[in-house]
Amino acid sequence: MIDLRNKWTAAAICLLLVTLLLGIEARSASSAAAEAAKPDVVGIVTLGDSITAGYEPGMNSSSKPYGYSERLLEQAWFHGKRATLDNYGILGLTTAGLRNYTAAIKDGTPITADSIQPGIADPRLDSFAARAAQTKAAIAEAKLIAITIGGNDVSSLLLEAKDMSESDLKNRIQELLDVYKVNVTAALENLRAVNPNATIIIADQYQPVPQLYAGQSYAKLMGAAESFTQAVDSLAASVTRSDAPVLVAHAASRFAGQEGSLTHIIADSNFHPTQLGYETIAKAFTELIWGDYRVPSTFLTPTASQRPMAIVVNRTELNTPNKPIVRGGQNFLALGDVLKAMGASGKWDSKNASATIVYGGRTVVITIGSKTMQVNGQKIAISSPAFLQKSGKELKTYLPLAALASGLGFDVKYSAQLRTAFINP
Fold this sequence. Notes:
Blueprint: H1 4-37, E1 41-48, H2 50-53, H3 68-78, E2 82-89, H4 95-107, H5 113-116, H6 125-130, H7 132-141, E3 144-148, H8 151-154, H9 157-160, H10 166-194, E4 199-203, H11 211-214, H12 218-239, E5 246-249, H13 252-255, H14 259-262, E6 263-267, E7 270-273, H15 275-290, E8 310-313, E9 316-317, E10 325-327, E11 330-334, H16 335-342, E12 345-349, E13 354-359, E14 362-367, E15 372-375, E16 378-381, E17 387-391, E18 394-400, H17 401-407, E19 411-415, E20 420-424
Parallel strand pairs: 1-2, 1-3, 3-4, 4-5, 8-20
Antiparallel strand pairs: 6-7, 8-9, 10-11, 11-18, 12-13, 13-14, 14-15, 15-16, 17-18, 19-20
Helix pairs in contact: 3-15, 4-10, 10-12
Protein name: Lysophospholipase L1-like esterase
InterPro entries: Cu_amine_oxidase-like_N (IPR012854), GDSL (IPR001087), Mao_N_sf (IPR036582), SGNH_hydro_sf (IPR036514)
Domain Copper amine oxidase-like N-terminal: 312-423
């Protein structure tokens, strides 16, 4: 005789297992879909010396740098990327200091000025030490790590070269490069331990002294810079991998013959890039990553007054006769230009004086004069309302750009130096 109780118990257990498995699969699929829907963000971490820090004469602890690192972030936005920047450039850092700093970050050991490099005088070092865990997390999540290092290792040559024989100089350069290779290789290994997959780009060391200033030493110093470039190329080739490349940004060749305009001469052994110099370094990195270095079209023609604001939407600079209007510190665009730039669809409701814009599963409704907008039916406050503006014989609907872009799920960033708003999906 068959025991129906056992039969039904077994069936119930099977049904329960199937239900649980389906629930797990559904949750996994939902989680995967949510992960796939998350916008891709390019985390940029820059490490190294005062060039990474963006130092220029006259800067102090409250100064806001605008060096190659900050330009690299702008270029990511220019090329349609959501991107963040963490800049850990330390004034006076040598390759030994970089090795110590990255080792402490990797191992989670306490960081002090002396543990990085005895005698270092960067006033921001205490704040770097306090953020060691945050630094490790930033490196672990980075997709791009950019490094300038080595200038403080070889700066003594700027003074010594003129009094050294060819053979003595050659031997001295080799000594410095041997130390450079050991320290930088160890630093790269530390970074790879934290982040096995990021693209790492390291700059070679440009020669900063103009020929007029260096005199007969110029040829010797240029030869030293060429030896440095060869050493960096060799080092990168020995550690690069197809899935985790280590590349070289060749800045040295771009400075050759242009040192006077690209470099501040602060003292006999203290040289830092000018703004044009920092742009030159940024170009070396950017062209290696994204192929071209971009500036707003407003920078390409001389203007007698302040340059107008530019707007770049998903790599394309907005070019329309309906120029952006600034009200209350906010930028407004005509409705038709918004739809075209963002690839969104929309319509104008004259009865309610409202615009409805649809993009990527989001619907935004903005009403003329209203201090709120609706995003998927939910009211959200905005600081400046939409308005109507006469253009010729037509009335144009002008919408608050930043509020609308955020409502549609776009990323909005602004560069004060370039006077450019970047809007990326």
